[in-house]
Amino acid sequence: MLQKKNIFVLIGGRSSEFEISLISGREVIRNINKSRYNIFPIVISKDGKRWQLTSSNALYEITDPLKYKGTTKEINLSQKKIFTDIKNIPQKPDIVFIVMHGSFGEDGTVQGMLELAGLKYTGSGVLSSALGMNKLMFKKIMIQDNIPVPRFTIISSNEPLSNVKNVIGNPPYFVKPNNQGSSIGTSIVHNIRNLKKSLNLAWRYSKYALVEEYIKGKELTCSVLGNENPTALPIIEIIPTKSDYFDYNSKYSESGSEEIVPAHISKKLTIKIQKISLKVFKSIGCRGFARVDIMLRNNTDPVVLEINTIPGLTPMSLFPKAARSAGISYPELIDKIIKYANE
């Protein structure tokens, strides 16, 4: 009989996506093969100072994690042992499953720490994670590799707003923080009078705000799975029902959006978008899994918005839906992500 391996599941951390990480982490733990792995859930506090080794049951007991959104209130765990970092935890992991979205989890920070500790971990490495999270650097690489992106400019609080119109033209614009996920701090600007308000929202989460041309057309996402020879999964078409775009509320509230998989587009366009998504994945050196978000300008021309190197793994998330459409169950998906980390 094979000896079980120890798998640490890292959740939470200093991120505005703490609660989403918790929901993703619980679902990952629920679906890890218990006959192969000893599971050690670790919830990193919102201030990043406490690493709380807990139990699966303690995580399942938490009701409605989203009620903590926007607060500094910590999640109350019925079982926990507190450590200052991963090196102080007595058990040694064979692999670390990172389910930390956003800052300090998806941006290469925790990946660098695990590299220094000599530990295997799921998902992309330090550089790929950092490039994927920094939207400006990501776009620069896309341009270098002839991958279509929206017209854009980056702006800080001490720069004149006239720069936006000079570079992009007239509104509408799409404004977002330079280094956040889950559509946090994003908004649409329909007229120039509202630009400062949208920038102030983005600057709450990042020193720099990214202002893009607003693209009309179908909103699509393509998940990618693998290492050296990755596979593009079926494309999902997103139709928000509670907002003008796929914002935080649309992503995580019940019936916030209609998600069509496979997307209602031609086979030729499907193949084109999957090829672009694989090229994006390889351009920044991703591994394991990622999700590429795309707008279809005038419903005909793909334009890449961004990549998510640790896409959501909640029951409502897009990546598991795409996998399911490809005939990959959630437990099989988790097995594959772990396998790619071991390669």
Describe what this molecule looks like in 3D:
There is one protein chain. The chain is an alpha+beta fold and 343 residues long. The protein has 3 domains: 117 residues, Rossmann fold; 144 residues, ATP-grasp fold, B domain (D-amino Acid Aminotransferase, Chain A, domain 1), CATH 3.30.470.20; 62 residues, Dna Ligase, domain 1 (2-Layer Sandwich). It has 11 helices and 15 strands. The strands form 3 sheets. Strands 10, 11, 12, 13, 14 and 15 form a 6-stranded antiparallel beta sheet that branches. The longest helix has 17 residues. The radius of gyration is 20 Å and the shape is globular. It starts with a strand and ends with a helix. The model has no long low-confidence stretch (mean pLDDT 90).
Summarize this entry quickly.
Helix content is 30%, strand content 24%. With 343 residues, it is an alpha+beta fold. Strand 10 and strand 11 (231-232) form a beta hairpin.
State the end-to-end distance: 22 Å
What is the second-level CATH architecture of the largest domain? 2-Layer Sandwich
Count of separate DSSP helical elements: 11
Structural class: alpha+beta
**Quantity of strands, as a count:** 15
Radius of gyration: 20 Å
| Helix-strand topology string | EHEEHEEHHHEHEEHEEEEHEHEEHH
From the structure provided, what is the oligomeric state, counting identical versus distinct chains? single chain
Task: Please describe the topology of this protein.
Layout: E1 5-12, H1 18-31, E2 37-44, E3 51-53, H2 56-60, E4 81-83, E5 95-99, H3 109-116, H4 126-133, H5 135-144, E6 152-155, H6 162-168, E7 173-177, E8 187-189, H7 195-203, E9 209-213, E10 217-226, E11 231-232, E12 236-240, H8 248-252, E13 257-260, H9 267-283, E14 288-297, E15 301-308, H10 318-325, H11 330-342
